[in-house]
Design brief:
This protein is of the alpha+beta class. The protein has helices at residues 22-35, 41-53, 101-115, 130-138; strands spanning 2-4, 13-17, 57-62, 68-79, 82-92, 120-123.
């Protein structure tokens, strides 16, 4: 677990949380399940352990009172388009939305992408999540592709 607070940025303490820890169970899991309600607690724990072994990082934003107010899950990938930082989930606790938590998490992953030599930060957002789309557009993110999916493989 690492903590980071940029010296020029007020706001939450950002901590990389490891699967199997109390912070993962009590803080990260409930927030990610807001976006992924189909994940049971057990399924989340299995996913988190496997994805972490594959390079997924769980960065949680903690307020001064110890409340976990948001989470970004992300990993760096080598692609034919160049090295990218892929944000898999970015979620803010509903009670803390529009307070800068999501923006701070996105700033952090962008800075990590720069440090890792990435050419871009990429993420998917559900087609009906217009609030998230406004958030990303306001931060100069653009719609660059359609994401296609084939279900029913098992």
């Amino acid at each position: 677990m690492t903590g980071a607070r940029h010296p020029d940025v007020d706001g939450p303490l950002l901590i990389d949380v490891t699967p199997g820890t109390p912070r993962m169970r009590n803080d990260v899991r409930p927030l990610v399940r807001i976006l992924r309600p189909e994940l049971t607690a057990e399924a989340f724990d299995c996913f988190a352990a496997e994805a972490h072994r594959q390079g997924l990082v769980f960065t949680a934003a903690y307020l001064e009172d110890g409340t976990c107010a948001g989470v970004a899950t992300h990993r760096t990938l080598a692609t034919s388009r160049g090295r990218i930082l892929l944000v898999e989930d970015l979620v803010t606790d509903p009670g803390h939305r529009s307070t800068g938590i999501g923006a701070r998490l996105l700033e952090e992953v962008v800075e990590r992408a720069r440090t890792a030599g990435c050419v871009a930060v990429e993420l998917d957002s559900g087609v009906t999540n217009h609030t998230a789309h406004r958030f990303y557009h306001a931060r100069q993110m653009r719609i660059a592709a359609f994401h296609f999916r084939l279900d029913g493989l098992r």
